[in-house]
Amino acid sequence: MFAGSRLPREGRAMGKVEINIPLVTWRDGRPRFFASKVHRQLGYKGEDLRHGKSGPWFTVEEAIAWSDARQLELKQKRAAIAAGETTVKKVANAAERARLAGVVTISQLVEAFLDKNPRMKGVPIIDGKKRRMPLAAATVRGYRGSARLLEQLEDGAAWHEPADDMTPKVLTGILDKVEIKHGLAQARAMRAMISAAYGFGRSKAGGYLVRHNPVAGLENTLPVLEPRIRVGSIAEMVHFVACCDALGFPDIGDSIVLGLYTAQRQADRLALEDSKITSEGILFHQRKKGGQPLLIPMIEMLRDRVVAAGERRLAWRLNYPHVLIDERLRRPWDDHRYRKAFRVLRHAAAFGTLESVKGKVTPMAAQLLGALDVRAVLEAAGLKPMPSLNDFHDQDLRDTAVTWLALAQNDKWEIASITGHSLKSIDEILKHYFGLHPDLARSGMAKMEKWRRTAR
């Protein structure tokens, strides 16, 4: 062996050949490049070192030459990043474009769906008698969230792969990983996004980017989420609203009361305008598909809060027509901001503090209440922490309203006329509410006992 050679040396005592080439791993005499996290961030993928997909494996000399070239590439890219000539993300994107030149990737398909689908932009599709309404804001937000999750999954392992290589088997593996790490709800949302993206990619509007939809070939369907039923007690709701008022957020308190005494969803409450309030009640036209117009009489407590809200805004230079206003920004609530504010106030009502178990305060909590001594304010108002509120969501206001209506001895026709449930499905829907509240069982048995005593 000549001087300076980098070829492996045979050790007579060991009886085997030891090969040590940077970036190359040998398994059973077969060289392979395993991309580390740093390499993947620069756009590199693991690969077998061979001639073609099924050709002969690299010899030691060829592996050394490949290693030298790859190390030089890495050195040049890192130098360019350090000099500010480019960024890690740009380098990675360039590497992916070079590797997949002319191939439609999952990232390209999903981005085309997010950016080019008119329904994602709030534009309806109208062609003759064909009508497709724009997607709801929550649906759009969900699709975009699932896209980000897929992009980040295992450092983007699937994100830049060819879209037509996404088979049902591959998709099953992705959904399994998502469910293990993020839960069933996220896995179902991911499947819905992928199905919608591939459906768009197969259409004329999507440019026929792909040939198939892997969701259609799934052998196993994801289980349906268990219905969430959480009914608030009168004491919990009184406490929650009182905390909102004490902390300077009567607008959130108004939303809670509106939800409890109309049984309407968050989106319908946030969209409600002053013009829909009449002497006979509140006119709601539910935004959900199949929703119907409703006229819901106002109880005295709700009417008093609506009047008080109007009085708080009299001096404003600009007033919006909405009943519920974000009074810090003086404009209608953004649903994303509303949900965060609701969680902050719920946490304060439950624990009397803004700090989580780990002592952290969320950015929204700091923005809304950071300068306020929450515990002192609540104590001054005679409000003690109520930890049971910690798992209460805005969506639970509807469940609570339905149950309270039932407890007040309303029949299903009366409940349906307020909640907006269809009569066809009211029995199926309400069985979840009725079966979970012990007061209903006690009320039923009291009626039974009264009947028994009077029956002859």
Can you summarize this structure?
It is built from 18 helices and twelve strands. The protein has helices at residues 37-41, 60-82, 88-99, 106-116, 137-152, 168-182, 184-201, 234-246, 250-260, 266-271, 300-312, 335-351, 363-369, 374-380, 396-407, 412-419, 426-434, 438-454; strands at residues 10-11, 16-17, 25-27, 30-33, 47-48, 125-127, 130-132, 277-278, 281-285, 293-296, 325-326, 331-332.
How would you explain this protein's 3D organization?
With 456 residues, the protein is mainly alpha-helical. It has 3 domains: 10-92, no CATH class; 100-217, DNA polymerase, domain 1 (Orthogonal Bundle), CATH 1.10.150.130; 234-442, hpI Integrase, Chain A (Orthogonal Bundle). It is 48% helix and 7% strand. It contains 18 helices and 12 strands. The strands form 5 sheets. Strands 3-4-5 form a 3-stranded antiparallel beta sheet, with no helix packed on it. It has a 3-stranded antiparallel beta sheet with strand order 8-9-10. Strands 1-2 form a two-stranded antiparallel sheet. A hairpin with a 7-residue loop joins strand 9 (281-285) and strand 10. Helix 4 (106-116) packs antiparallel against helix 5 (137-152), helix 6 packs antiparallel against helix 7 (184-201) and helix 9 packs antiparallel against helix 11 (300-312). The chain is elongated, with a radius of gyration of 31 Å. 25% of the residues are buried. Residues 1-14 have low confidence and may be disordered.
Q: Pairing-aware structural class of the strands and helices?
A: mainly alpha
Spatial shape: elongated
**Largest beta sheet: what is the strand line-up?**
3-4-5
The CATH architecture of the largest domain:
Orthogonal Bundle
Count of domain modules = 3
CATH topology of the largest domain, which one? hpI Integrase, Chain A
Quaternary structure type: single chain
CATH class of the largest domain: Mainly Alpha
